[in-house]
Amino acid sequence: MGITSLLGSGVYTAAYPLHDGDINEESAEPNDRKLLYEEWANYSVFYKYQPIGLVRKYFGEKIGLYFAWLGLYTQMLIPASLVGVIVFLYGCATVDDNIPSMEICHPRNNITMCPLCDRVCSYWKLSTACGTARASHLFDNPATVFFSIFMALWAAMFMEHWKRRQMRLNYEWDLTGFEDEEVSDSQIKNNRLPAYMTNIVMMLLMIGVTFAIVFGVILYRISTKAALHMSSNPTTRNNVQLTVKTTAAIINLVVILILDEVYGAVARWLTVLEVPKTDKSFEERLIFKTFILKFFNAFTPIIYIAFFRGRLVGRPGSYLYVFESYRMEECAHGGCLMELCIQLSITMLGKQLIQNNLFEIGVPKLKKLIRYIRSKQGAFQEEERQKKLQRYETDHFLEPFAGLTPEYMEMMIQFGFVTLFVASFPLAPLFALLNNIIEIRLDAKKFVTELRRPVAARAKDIGIWYNILKGVAKVAVIINAFVISFTSDFIPRMVYQYMYSPDGTMHGFVNHTLSYFNVSHFQDGKETMDPLHLGYRVEICRYKDYREPPWSDTPYEISKEFWTVLAVRLAFVIVFQNVVMLMSDIVDWLIPDIPKDISLQIHKEKILLVDLFMKEEQGKIHILESRPSTGGKENCSRSNNNNSTVAHPRSGLHTNSTKSF
Amino acid sequence: MGITSLLGSGVYTAAYPLHDGDINEESAEPNDRKLLYEEWANYSVFYKYQPIGLVRKYFGEKIGLYFAWLGLYTQMLIPASLVGVIVFLYGCATVDDNIPSMEICHPRNNITMCPLCDRVCSYWKLSTACGTARASHLFDNPATVFFSIFMALWAAMFMEHWKRRQMRLNYEWDLTGFEDEEVSDSQIKNNRLPAYMTNIVMMLLMIGVTFAIVFGVILYRISTKAALHMSSNPTTRNNVQLTVKTTAAIINLVVILILDEVYGAVARWLTVLEVPKTDKSFEERLIFKTFILKFFNAFTPIIYIAFFRGRLVGRPGSYLYVFESYRMEECAHGGCLMELCIQLSITMLGKQLIQNNLFEIGVPKLKKLIRYIRSKQGAFQEEERQKKLQRYETDHFLEPFAGLTPEYMEMMIQFGFVTLFVASFPLAPLFALLNNIIEIRLDAKKFVTELRRPVAARAKDIGIWYNILKGVAKVAVIINAFVISFTSDFIPRMVYQYMYSPDGTMHGFVNHTLSYFNVSHFQDGKETMDPLHLGYRVEICRYKDYREPPWSDTPYEISKEFWTVLAVRLAFVIVFQNVVMLMSDIVDWLIPDIPKDISLQIHKEKILLVDLFMKEEQGKIHILESRPSTGGKENCSRSNNNNSTVAHPRSGLHTNSTKSF
């Protein structure tokens, strides 16, 4: 309390533990900091295990656990990336055997498609979508179904392995008996309901802002596309798709990066409003809120592309319009999976490169520079200064430690990218792995060289982060189920092959997924201005949907095929979700939480301890009988009157005492 | 080890702790057994809380926990039964407003239905199904959807409350530091694979036997129905349905009761084969296997009725036949929900009445009688004998204690009935409640008067039973989702009302669910022998299915409506399952595992303890300084050299010592 109030009243400007010594100095005695710098905070040792024991010794258990967790996560990403790369390569290898894309690309294919926008767009040949169709196959093949099941089990395995690793570290670091309980006696219960209400309203508002921005980007895309289509410059018109997609993705990324900072501040403000009773409770509430906001921020655009885009377009002759003039956007032929994949890679790589590397390396360097300039000693030579200054002075130039929350948060969002949409992006684990190999050493460098030494804190586990991981893994199962069944064409292909195909092959699938439209049914003012674009008069054009043809009794009604495919899609979601959940539960159940050797070791120590207590008791009785010394006796019997429970000793305390013998 | 080997070699016939005294004796000093008999093992105190403290004192923690659990479960059943009864009453009250059953019962309704069996059955009027349609409404109305969501949350609440109660009992019974760890050092790992294989094969075989028996009962039902239909006696023919259903349900019940015993033995044999390393592991494996087998045994016939019956019948003109002559059975009009309900109530009530009451009361009485006769002292007068005999002799006449497994097992199966199919049987909680009110006192009576006093065993929790409860609660969510969407007519009604109804009401629903069949399309030899049964020539008959009419392009094909309804059904399952799982997680998260007052209390005790340790240390230093006595000093410092961890004390040991001050 003393130092805190002195800091608060400005008597001291800062209080921090000192670093062990200098890193670069060629001093005679090697110190822990130097050792860490050489053996840990160094890119050249990236393939080695981290010296977690030393990290814990120097920075405390809490930071040690973070690096242990990050290490295990990175290690577990290796098999995931391997399988992901194999799945991707499988897609590449089978792209030429894929009948639907072969049919689209076939030169004799002359299916005329309906215009993609009103008036300015014209009819087009399906064969021009050949490239997209082939590319889609890379991410939309049966192997991705296998991969998303694999990744769900991988997530379960990861959680289990972490539990075991944590248990082992707890044992090795003598934490088995430690519990960081914080109980507040204060009963401030009044005036908290308004705070809760503000919280909920604000959280919903923030999520609403995210939605609004996503909607704004959609509007931007639609309107820009329409504007560019009308451009007289043919080059512009040809590059419409690319221009719009790229700029929209960049806008999305920039918005995500900005909102991430805003949401961090909002979450902190909201948590302060709530007046949590303890520091731990404050931290947990803050983390929870920040996570929810950042999660929505990162994943809303992706969820829109995966599940809503291209589904709310209406049909030719009766399109859906936003603000009565903009037609809702469609996906390129081959489903939205390709676009999802592009968006995912841009967001993930962009976030990692900009947020992690630029912000994490650049900003601390900048801050250090500013602090250096401000301290009026810029005139001194760097080396000279270092020699002259005391340890506490050198450390004062370093950035203060701001907690592990940003580091963990970044990893949680990354874990989301790795698990949530893995069905559509099998390379995500590989990107994550590459990022994390750098991340570990980057964080290490930051902790060893850029930050003031943090106050060592004890911790038994990674706390609320474990629950967040578990939550993400749970959500991942259902999202992957929906991606496979709704975003990819996996189910329509299956349904066609087993229910509609005349010869049991995929031949004719493309034709089956396209409905017919009679161009005379276009609304007035919506028909294309350039009907002879393809060189002939079009009477029937095709569009991707399951609807009745113009010549049926109920033209353009949703067809039986649509409902069949929908039913199979939903059935797949149920089967996938429950099978994967069951398998995860089995993994959870098969892998014991405490490693066998650790539990044996703990058990043996307990037996040793009981023996010791027994001997001690006997020895005491012996001494008491032989030489009665009142003062000492009373004291001993008081401190040992828990002998009735000796047969069932508790680990913590005793483990420590046993070890010290 | 000593007494066990003496028992094994037959030197002693039995070893058991003695009861406190006689119950009926008008002795001067009241003993605990008598107190328990009066205040606990007595039907007249059924409305009171159990004296759990006394139960624990007399029988030990393990049995105390069982009764505490049973008490909480019974208590939690009260709100569940109340809501269940209200839901049932809602069904009763709205039965006259139910448009579909009104339409069926309407005198002007003259829909002609297709025959229910080949040749001997004839066409029938839908209005004759009026009674069943009205009865179905009792269990198939929107309130049951609400009720199954309610019961899923109820199950989550129950688990949470039990965790809290257990924590409280742990604190009150000084078990916070106790851990019943059993670690075996023996590394017998060879020769276990064959045992595991035998296990899996046998388990599958046993489950196969269950399936075979269920199938046998189906065959019995089909063939008996066919035989009785051909009977010349008109009374027999009229009572066909009732006779067949009742006998089949009784056969099912008897088979379940017999197989329950067989499976118990099989599970034990299989577990012995596995050679588990510790007693605890043996018990857990045995319980797990027994539960799986008994669960399948109890629920397979019910699952068949709920999800398969009436779904594999084919259609008129192309029925599905078993062994080429027996047509698969259909459900009565109004879905299989009614039959499911009948089967559920018969199985549940039958199991409870016969297994619990008859077996639990009758068999021990019988055994006691046999032992009494065998002991050659039957000539003595009962009272005289009691007076003459020593305590250990009287107790020897009692049944030995055989573990809590059967008691728990029975409750788990009951919990299954209460949660798994609650959507179709809202009165299940009420039946369970009535049974349990008796069960508590019955078990109490058994423990106090019929059994030898069990060896008191310590336990911190109810062990594997908690996991089983959790598993049942999980399975319940998905089964209820399927019952609502597939067994009940809830979804077809919704789909009709919002998609097909011309005026947005339920009028016309019955007609919509019936397909048309042209009787000239019956296969040869399958048409009815009595075509003029209704008094007129039938050309088109109706059957319950969504198929194209004979006059469509694709007659008798599955129609678009079928796929629409199926898609909505599956969507409902997904939404229901995920919403309920989310809500259960929220309940789990909102209710803290440790009651507030207990955690405060534990915290306070810890602070007290730290103070005490500090004072003691100071006192010791004082003593050592003032009067150096080598022997005592050395001893004290050794027994207190864990002072380095005093700042982080662990509950167990210290809680005990604090309390004894």
Number of domains of chain A: 1
Question: How much of the polypeptide of chain A forms β-strand, as a percent range?
Answer: under 5%
Multimeric status of the protein:
homodimer
Give the C-alpha Rg of chain A: 32 Å
Amino-to-carboxy terminus distance of chain A? 36 Å
Assign the structural class of chain A, choosing from mainly alpha, mainly beta, alpha/beta, alpha+beta, or little secondary structure: mainly alpha
| Mean pLDDT score of chain A | 81
**Largest interface summary:** A-B, 53 and 52 residues
Largest sheet of chain A: 2 strands, antiparallel
How many runs of DSSP E, i.e. beta strands of chain A?
8
Low-confidence stretches of chain A: 629-661
Silhouette of chain A: elongated
What percentage of residues of chain A falls in helices of 4 or more residues? 55-70%
Order of adjacent strands in the largest pleated sheet of chain A: 1-2
Number of helices of chain A: 23
Biased composition (Polar residues) (chains A, B): 637-646
Membrane topology (chains A, B): Multi-pass membrane protein
Subcellular location (chains A, B): Cell membrane; Membrane
Domain Anoctamin dimerisation (chains A, B): 1-52
